[in-house]
Specification:
Elements lengths: L1 H7 L14 H29 L3 H14 L17 E2 L4 H6 L5 E2 L3 E5 L6 H14 L4 E5 L6 H6 L8 E3 L4 H13 L5 E5 L7 H5 L9 H20 L2 E6 L2 E2 L9 E2 L5 H5 L2 E13 L2 E14 L7 E7 L3 E2 L1 H11 L4 E3 L2 E4 L2 E5 L1 H10 L1 H14 L3 H14 L6
Parallel strand pairs: 3-7, 3-10, 4-5, 4-6, 6-7
Antiparallel strand pairs: 1-2, 8-9, 10-11, 11-12, 12-13, 14-15, 15-16
């Protein structure tokens, strides 16, 4: 009996030997296996309906799956229930403009705009949100300008953030590709496309002409990365600058470096602009930012979000809630006072913002009502399901 117990004990340990598998975990594993088998049965039934009455198609599909693996071809209906998940941006208005989920997983995103408009700050907020969910983030600092103290103020965990400062563009893209194919990183930020200098240009002299080198680098990188990014569910964010085209008489003269490939392969392109200053007396304490989603493959495009970006701690999540709540009549304003129902939030937006920060339950209520008013009931259902799963059931 003693020998039997000693041989079975290691089975309750994890691979690192630190944690034991609880009955709850085993039940979760069993339920997940049942769920997977049910999904597999549903997928087979859908495939059987498609292949019914066509022996040629059945043989062809069997040959494809034999050569390229199961799942290489399937009916779209079997995967139609899969909702696109994402990473919050710390701005609810921008999350809603992107479709509700924030930065989508498994997609390429471009954030571009003028200097000092908040592009890197927005990307660092996404990194911080990914880390809060237990994810791993990487920052490819091609500009060699990452400020660790500012990143820490935004909530980034510097201990777990992977940082690389490549010497040329090819090295940056190789590192990005390796991180994506590792299937272990949730979000990668490349700052910036304009700083991805091809090695041939670095080896040359200042004044040499190198036509199209960076565009070819980005085009080849996009072709190699797109499939791997979709499979790994990694969100890759490219920060980009803007340039002006010469001789443009009609339309906007602005363009972005790196050629056209990035624009085509991006699922979302976010144009970030500073539209005003926020002052406390004579002191400038922040800026008002407008983010326009000029391209979106996961939701309707051309939506606009406006939010406050403070010089002290970045995007004001609570201030964004107040703006959205006021627009949708969830938060009322009388003079300088903000009120939520019978509750006084404070006199002035800054005091109301501090009140919501100190009372996260009230902020969560306002957020839920904003999402419900905007038609994002599916997000509320996901939040409720996640909260129920995280609650201890007290089982032994």
């Amino acid at each position: 009996m003693v020998a039997t117990a000693s041989t079975q004990a290691p089975k309750n340990k994890s691979t690192n030997g630190s944690t034991a598998t609880t009955p709850t975990n085993r039940m979760a594993k069993k339920s997940s296996k049942k769920g997977k088998s049910a999904k597999a049965d549903a997928k087979k039934s859908v495939m059987d309906v498609v292949l019914e009455g066509s022996d040629e198609l059945r043989h062809t599909v069997a040959a494809i799956e034999k050569q390229f693996g199961e799942g290489a071809i399937m009916p779209l209906g079997s995967e139609s229930d899969r909702r696109i998940e994402g990473i919050p941006t710390s701005s609810l208005s921008l999350d809603m403009a992107l479709g509700g989920q924030g930065i989508p997983h498994g997609r390429i995103i471009e954030i571009f705009g003028p200097e000092s408009s908040g592009k890197t700050t927005l990307a660092l907020h996404v990194v911080a949100e990914a880390q809060k969910k237990g994810g791993i983030a990487a920052f490819i600092d091609a500009e060699h300008a990452l400020d660790p103290s500012w990143a820490k103020k935004l909530g980034v965990d510097l201990e777990t953030l992977l940082v690389s400062q490549p010497s040329h563009g090819e090295e940056a893209m190789h590192i990005t590709e390796m991180l994506v194919k590792s299937n272990a990183v949730d979000v990668i930020v490349v700052d910036s496309v304009a700083a991805l200098v091809p090695k041939k240009e670095l080896d040359g002299e200042i004044g040499d002409s190198h036509v199209g080198l960076q565009a070819r680098l980005m085009s080849q990188s996009m072709r190699k990365l797109t499939g791997a990014i979709a499979k790994s569910k990694t969100s890759v964010i490219f920060i980009n600058q803007i340039r002006e085209k010469i001789g443009v008489m009609f339309g906007s003269p602005e363009t972005t470096p790196g050629g056209r490939a990035l624009k085509f392969y991006c699922s979302c392109r976010i144009d970030v602009r500073r539209i005003g200053q926020l002052k406390d007396g004579e002191e400038v304490v922040g800026q008002r930012v407008r983010a326009k989603v000029v391209k979106n493959k996961v939701a309707p495009p051309f939506r606009i979000a406006e939010f406050d970006m403070m010089h002290k701690d970045g995007i004001s999540y609570e201030g964004d809630l107040i703006d959205l709540g006021t627009d949708q009549k969830i938060v009322s304003r009388t003079g300088a006072w903000f009120r939520y129902g019978e509750m006084q939030l404070g006199q002035g937006k800054e005091k109301a913002r501090l009140f919501l920060r100190e009372n996260p339950e009230t902020a969560q209520e306002i957020r839920d009502k904003i999402l419900a008013a905007g038609g994002y009931d599916d997000l509320l259902a996901i939040d409720k399901t996640g909260a129920e799963e995280n609650e201890p059931d007290g089982s032994l």
